[in-house]
Specification:
eight-stranded parallel barrel; 10 helices; 46% helix; binds SN-glycerol-1-phosphate
């Protein structure tokens, strides 16, 4: 792996940072233009990464159009801030990372990809087959792979259904410890504890704590987190990253989204 390729991994796994926020943009739910406006508003609020993906209805076209629109919008504001000494240029330099449904929904314009094994899937397709199918595309495009164990917890939502996950129940702390340890032994750098997009209840703090105590990996938590207080519970339990998808998509007005996310991030790190 070359220097440029590993930069995003170092950035994502930087242990000196307090819990960071990332938004998830689902190309199946919004136009590229809307996605780009939401990404700029989120980064202005302090989000540190933009994930692009979804568990259904994404393909090469809508994923690529969305990634390109977000990259162009962030480049434009970076350029604008470089022309204005009162604005900090580096604030805008956040990675745009694929969070893919599978090998058929990728974009060469992304900085990196969560190269993941859905560890508690019952299907070989999500354990290894999609990864093999996408690997050479990723290599050729020069997208940085972020080695990640993806673990779906109850209620699991669409990701759990599509991925045929044997869900981790909220009190199965020993089981999540075993998955976290396995992820570390496999050499993954990140684990993503997922409750499913739109989940009524997020991943329990018991599960996050048990994972935190079992490994030194970067822990990403998402699914059903809609406010800063809930994000703080995840942060206190040991999450390095908190992801929100639906929260971002509920806003059409970029200023309102920016204000809401600014408050969210401030409460999360309170
Ligand atoms: C889904 O964890 C993410 O993969 C985000 O979930 O849409 O509920 O924020 P929400």
């Amino acid at each position: 792996m070359g220097g440029v390729e590993s930069q995003t991994l170092e950035y994502v796994c930087d242990k000196t940072k307090s819990t960071r926020h990332a938004i998830l943009i689902d190309p199946a739910d919004q136009t590229p233009d809307t996605a780009a406006k939401r990404a700029v508003a989120a980064v202005a609020a302090g989000s540190k990464m933009v994930l692009v993906g979804g568990s259904s209805d994404t393909d090469m076209d809508n994923v690529n159009d969305t990634v390109v629109a977000i990259q162009e919008a962030l480049e434009l504001v970076t350029w604008a801030s470089s022309q204005d000494s009162s604005l900090e240029e580096k604030t805008w330099k956040v990675p745009v990372v694929l969070f893919p449904q599978g090998a058929a929904a990728l974009s060469p314009a992304a900085d990196a990809i969560t190269f993941m094994m859905l560890m508690n899937s019952k299907s070989p397709r999500y354990l290894i087959e999609e990864q093999v199918a996408g690997s050479l595309f990723i290599k050729k495009a020069g997208i940085s792979p972020l080695p990640m164990g993806y673990i779906i917890c109850e209620p699991g939502g669409k990701a759990g259904e599509v991925g045929q996950a044997d869900l981790i129940l909220s009190n199965q702390t020993e089981r999540i410890s075993a998955y976290a340890t396995t992820a570390e032994y496999y050499g993954f750098k990140i684990i993503y504890l997922e409750a499913g997009s739109g989940a009524q209840t997020p991943v329990s703090s018991e599960l996050i704590k048990a994972a935190r105590d079992s490994c030194n990996l970067t822990i990403v938590v998402g699914g059903g987190i809609r406010d800063g207080e809930t994000a703080k519970i995840a942060s206190d339990a040991g999450a390095d990253w908190v992801i929100t998808g639906n929260l971002t998509e509920s806003f059409d007005d970029a200023n309102a989204l920016q204000n809401t996310l600014t408050e969210f991030i401030s409460k999360m790190n309170d």
